[in-house]
């Protein structure tokens, strides 16, 4: 008897997906390994993928309640964006102009602008106002094909404002929350959100010159409050010259781990401080940015199983050198890609554009970029058992691209049309 399914997607010009294999993050040669099914189809039932293969074979095995024709289109796993700061109030367009005129990101931050400018606007916004901004951006990235997205706090920098940010993120991600009557929930489809506490994102003006006192506040007041309310899955620290050093970062992460949070780090973005080595030492799920990773830390990442999450849009936007992606892949370190979506260093959450920049700037192949944005990124968020590839048993998170092959993602510089997105089997309106 044929299996009843909710939806049959296909026939498609191509179904393109990484394959989970041994459950370890794709690395080395596997970093660029895709399963390509010309004329493929995907069957969905109860929000999960139940069958994948050539259309004629899948169609003969299932009895679909509905079908979604994908002729001329490519079916891909939903994109996973494992590093964003999309909870913020206030854009920084004028800072863009100042940087183009020669001011550096660090100079602007040291003068009380940059992140601290966003902190002022975010502190002034109410929880529900912020939640509305987050929800708009979640829907924006879903339209770009992102079905799972990590979102950090870090623009509050007081206990109350960090909690406000994390509560806003939680509310925004809950499709049943109408945000105090401001948002119709009818038919709302949202990406899954992974919340990260980034209280150690910058030293706020009140603690200027005394970062250790601020770290004390993060460790003794913020972290316990975040853990008590269960508001974050991960802790992150902006481990950077002039921001938080290795010892301060270690203190925050150890305290968070004692409370049950997992770690991910901003590492070696602007200065070669050794953040990647620290991420490995601390067993972090991911070390992010790595524009200036030290050579000796590369094997440490590999040995620790820490994913290297690269954000090439940020390197481009800051006019900094790209991370040594080819070196990392050659060394067998699993690589993920992320947008960094934030008002200062990457005001876009378009993962296809990130893939394009990864290919053009770091020499990834289009296949490596796709793997890094799906299964690799799912590993960076420790969810690869559920998401990141089109395989039976996984959540039905799918992108239907209005182009005949996966290469169009990178090739078209982020402009290939996303014709439809499925989140856990639900078609986003
Ligand atoms: O990943 N590096 C620190 N945080 C962000 C930038 C945040 C901001 O400038 O607002 C980043 O680049
Ligand atoms: Fe970041």
Automatic annotation (TrEMBL):
Location relative to the cell: Cytoplasm
Q: E.C. number, please? A: 3.5.2.7
Does Metal-binding show up as a keyword for this record?
yes
Protein residues bound to 4-imidazolone-5-propanoate: 92, 155, 201, 269, 345
One Pfam family recorded for the sequence: HUTI_composite_bact
Residues annotated as binding Zn(2+):
83, 85, 266, 340
What Gene3D superfamilies does this protein's entry cite? Metal-dependent hydrolases, Urease, subunit C, domain 1
Instruction: Cite the binding residues for Fe(3+).
Output: 83, 85, 266, 340
Q: Which GO terms describe its molecular function?
A: imidazolonepropionase activity; iron ion binding; zinc ion binding
In the record's cofactor note, how is the cofactor described as bound?
A: Binds 1 zinc or iron ion per subunit.
Which residues are noted in the entry as N-formimidoyl-L-glutamate-binding? 155, 342, 344
Q: Name one GO biological process term.
A: L-histidine catabolic process to glutamate and formamide
Required cofactor(s)? Zn(2+); Fe(3+)
Could you tell me which pathway this protein works in? Amino-acid degradation; L-histidine degradation into L-glutamate; N-formimidoyl-L-glutamate from L-histidine: step 3/3
- Where the record annotates domain Amidohydrolase-related, the positions are 74-427
Query: One GO cellular component from the entry?
Result: cytoplasm
- Family designation: Belongs to the metallo-dependent hydrolases superfamily. HutI family.
* Role, per record: Catalyzes the hydrolytic cleavage of the carbon-nitrogen bond in imidazolone-5-propanoate to yield N-formimidoyl-L-glutamate. It is the third step in the universal histidine degradation pathway.
**Listed name of the protein:** Imidazolonepropionase
Phylogenetic placement of the source organism: Bacteria, Bacillati, Bacillota, Clostridia, Eubacteriales
């Amino acid at each position: 008897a044929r299996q009843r399914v909710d939806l049959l997607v296909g026939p498609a010009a191509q179904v393109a997906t990484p394959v989970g294999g041994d459950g370890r993050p794709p690395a080395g040669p596997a970093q660029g390994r895709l399963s390509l099914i010309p004329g493929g189809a995907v069957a969905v039932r109860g929000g999960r993928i139940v069958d994948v293969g050539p259309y004629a074979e899948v169609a003969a095995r299932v009895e679909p309640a509905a079908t979604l024709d994908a002729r001329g289109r490519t079916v891909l796993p939903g994109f996973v964006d494992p590093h964003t700061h999309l909870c913020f109030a206030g854009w920084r367009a004028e800072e863009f102009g100042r940087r183009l005129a020669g001011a550096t990101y660090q100079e602007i931050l040291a003068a009380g602008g940059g992140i601290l400018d966003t902190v002022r606007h975010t502190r002034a916004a109410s929880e529900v106002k912020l939640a509305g901004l987050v929800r708009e951006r979640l829907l924006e990235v879903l339209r770009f094909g992102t079905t799972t997205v990590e979102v950090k706090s870090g623009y509050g920098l007081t206990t109350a404002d960090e909690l406000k940010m994390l509560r806003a993120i939680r509310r925004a991600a809950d499709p049943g929350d109408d945000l105090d009557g401001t948002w119709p929930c009818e038919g709302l489809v949202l990406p899954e959100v992974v919340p990260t506490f980034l209280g150690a994102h910058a030293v706020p003006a009140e603690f200027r010159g005394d970062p250790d006192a601020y770290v004390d506040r993060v460790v003794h007041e913020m972290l316990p409050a975040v853990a008590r309310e269960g508001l974050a899955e991960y802790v992150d620290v902006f481990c950077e010259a002039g921001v938080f050093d290795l010892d301060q970062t270690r203190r925050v992460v150890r305290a968070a781990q004692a409370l049950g949070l997992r770690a991910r780090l901003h590492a070696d973005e602007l200065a070669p401080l050794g953040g990647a080595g620290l991420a490995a030492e601390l067993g972090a799920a991911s070390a992010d940015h790595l524009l200036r990773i030290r050579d000796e830390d590369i094997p440490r990442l590999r040995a620790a199983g820490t994913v290297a999450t690269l954000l090439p849009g940020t390197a481009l936007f800051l006019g900094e050198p790209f991370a040594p992606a080819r070196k990392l892949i050659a060394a067998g370190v699993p690589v993920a890609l992320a947008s960094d979506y934030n008002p200062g260093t990457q005001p876009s959450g378009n993962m296809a554009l990130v893939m394009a920049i990864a290919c053009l700037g770091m020499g990834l192949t289009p296949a490596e970029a796709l793997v890094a944005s799906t299964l690799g990124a799912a590993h960076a968020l420790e969810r690869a058992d559920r998401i990141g590839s089109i395989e039976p048993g996984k959540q039905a998170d799918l992108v239907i691209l209005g182009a005949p092959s996966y290469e169009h993602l990178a090739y078209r510089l982020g402009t290939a049309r996303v014709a439809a997105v499925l989140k856990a089997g639900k078609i986003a309106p």
